[in-house]
Amino acid sequence: MHSLNVSERDWLAETFEEHRRHLRAVAYRMLGSLNEADDAVQETWLRLSRQDPDAIENLGGWLTTVVARVCLNILKARRTRPEEPFGVRVPDPLVSTDDQLDPEQEALVADSVGLALLVVLDTLEPAERLAFVLHDMFAVPFDEIAPIVGRSSMATRQLASRARRRVQGADAAPDPDLGAQRAVVDAFIAAARGGDFEALIAVLDPDIVLRADTGVQLGAPSREVRGAESVARAALTFSQLDVVARPALVNGGAGTVNTRDGEPFSIAGFTVRDGRITAINILADPDRLGRLDLAGPN
Questions:
Q1: The pLDDT of residue 121
Q2: Model-level pTM?
Q3: 208 forms bridges with which residues in the sheet?
Q4: How far apart are CA 88 and CA 80, in angstroms?
Q5: Which CATH fold topology does 178-290 show?
Q6: Model confidence over 184-229: pLDDT tens digits?
Q7: Tell me: the pLDDT tens digits for 217-248?
Q8: For the domain bounded by 1-84, which CATH number is listed?
Q9: Helix crossing, 59-79 with 34-49: angle to 10°?
Q10: 146 with 153: CB under 8 angstroms?
């Protein structure tokens, strides 16, 4: 193992910090978990600190490769972890109660990385996800991705192609006009509060999917609801709870932070396409909510 002197270590730490935002963005897209993304970035730093920097020809490429390998191992471990709860899992949302994300969040949700897209990425095989994220989102050549997944360049190209078809088929990208998104979400909330079933149906896509991740709470299982009528009924039931919904940016799109008795109750991210809501992703797991920074301006 190469032993760094103080000046080398300081230079390496400073250089690593210049890449941290990029590495965290790669890891968040790979994992959909802020905690695990931070762990992957930290593990990448530990591996770098054990290297001879003179032996690394392209530091940025080396770091991207290493964080991708770490994430791939985490994804594979997830699939064999018996304690992982079954059912619906909503990825960690990035929440801002102001009208804009901070620069760190902006880097994480560039390229319309909404919750709906992360949900689709969660359905991919680990190697497919890595190939798609690195190539389609970060323009890493297939020749550089192939050794990470242990495939030929052609096979790696096919992995990304399969993933791309799944992503495109899911129509996970929202309309770009945030104001239009908000108007539809506001209409949905008003209709739910008013108990107006028909008004709810009017703003819901016929094939809408609602995912609610409550973690491992007993008596409130995570669930997936499909179809406008079923989602409208679920919204009317939810509206009977004493919950206050306030507008928020969730992964750069229209969403709400919902509180009950002044405490965070859930976060909802909405995907709006062509004036209708096509997906609602709700995180209501109290353990995970407690780890998110939901403080906003007064």
A1: 93
A2: 0.85
A3: none
A4: 17
A5: Nuclear Transport Factor 2; Chain: A, (3.10.450)
A6: 999 999 999 999 999 999 999 999 999 999 886 645 667 889 999 9
A7: 645 667 889 999 999 999 998 888 888 889 99
A8: 1.10.1740
A9: 130
A10: yes
Fold match between 1-84 and 178-290? no
Closest CA to 31 of 59, 72, 87, 85: 72
Q: What is the residue extent of each domain of the chain?
A: 1-84, 178-290
Rg (CA), the chain: 21
Distance CA 172, CA 113 (A): 9
Mean per-residue pLDDT of the chain: 86
Instruction: Note the Cα 101 to chain centre separation in Å.
Output: 15
- At 254 the pLDDT is 92
Q: Are 264 and 289 in contact (CB under 8 A)?
A: yes
